[in-house]
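W.,

You were right to be curious about this one. When I first looked at the sequence I had no strong expectations either way, so I just let the prediction run and decided to look at it fresh. Below is the sequence, 338 residues in total, followed by the output.
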Amino acid sequence: MSLHQKIIFSLALFGLLSPPMQAAAITERSEVQAFIKEMRDRHDFAEQDLQRWFADTRIKPSIIKAISRPAEKKAWKDYRPIFLTESRIEGGIEFWDRHAELLQRAEQEYGVDPAVIVAIIGVETRYGRHKGSFRVIDALSTLAFDYPPRSKFFRSELEHYLLMTREEKVDPMSLLGSYAGAMGQPQFISSSYRHYAVDFNADGRRDIWNDAADAIGSVANYFKMHGWKSGEHVTQRVDVSAVTNKALLSEDDLKPSHALSELRQQGIGDILVTLDDQQQAAMINLEGDEGLEHWLGLDNFYTITRYNHSALYAMAVYQLSEAIRARRDEMKQADSHG
């Protein structure tokens, strides 16, 4: 036996040349079978379809790894540069100009600031360019059955997903999304799609993947349904140097619960005089490049956090929206004087 043959024989002996083992089908797991039976009994799915779909579903360790280290765990000084970039500002201007009529109609029908709609899509998918590469059924199944901290939530989203694909007449094995199962240009989770996605161009489909009209209308509808107040401020930075009640500054609640009159009395400075005393706000504290930043989270700021329950996320959307608006206005003004 030659040296080459000996090496081949040794590798084969230790199984190193054998084909990779196929991951065991998750249909062998009792909790998956329980879910299948529940979908059959509660929603009248054909069990053979469910068995076939889940036999082809894969648990992905990379999904667990990704959800365990979300960007929202970063400090604001590290989170902000991810989204406040020249490419996202320029991309936002281009997206706004390309879909100006749709954005104007969305504002008229839903009362939502076009700059915020643009910024949401920009933060989520870079204006539809990065919609996710995980099969949604793999992502939701991984998190429903192998991620105990939020298994109940993702099990519910998996249920919504199968209902959604049946309602929309889509193959549940075909859709791609984020590691958390978010889909399309605005990255709706399954329940959000079912409740808030709209057919904004009236073509008979709610296509948030490829249709900018439906993506724009769906974001606007989501914000309206979560309490967006047309024409009102979102947030503003304030001075807390005169505040003696340190407990006020250490709060970690996104929901506005303090009347501005109370905050003024507590020593919060620089609050806009145009803001009504009875308006409610939350104290938002962010770790910036030059130390702690203090902001008022007004009702519209809270609405943005209903899209992603993070002050960092809401602030990134707000600041990107303002940067896009300001740059676009500058360009329009320059063109008018040209």
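Here's what jumped out at me. Residues 2-22 have pLDDT under 50 and may be disordered. And, maybe more interesting for your project: The radius of gyration is 24 Å.

Coffee later to discuss?

I.
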